Amino acid sequence: MKLLCQVYRSSRKEEMYLYVDKANGLSDVPAPLLERFGEPVEVMTLLLDPERKLARATASDVLQSIAEKGFFLQMPPSAAELQRRNSPGE
Prior knowledge:
This protein has a single domain, classed as YcgL domain (NE1680-like fold, Roll). The protein contains three helices and four strands. It is an alpha+beta fold. β1 (about 5-10) and β2 form a beta hairpin.
């Protein structure tokens, strides 16, 4: 399954992103989530398939969430993830 996906970043929360089907836009995202998310800022459009590499999610999880809920919400990294990301390699 391939999907033309629109990615938005949150204007309120750093490193929070919404992935949606470009054809539907934000119409399937619940209003309470959009309120918490803030003003959506378009980041990119990409052709998403299960084999595509993403930074912090698997493409198959994103596709499944969009098929089931109409969107995928990528949360900011946890404190532990940030610490691992910023620690020097051994």
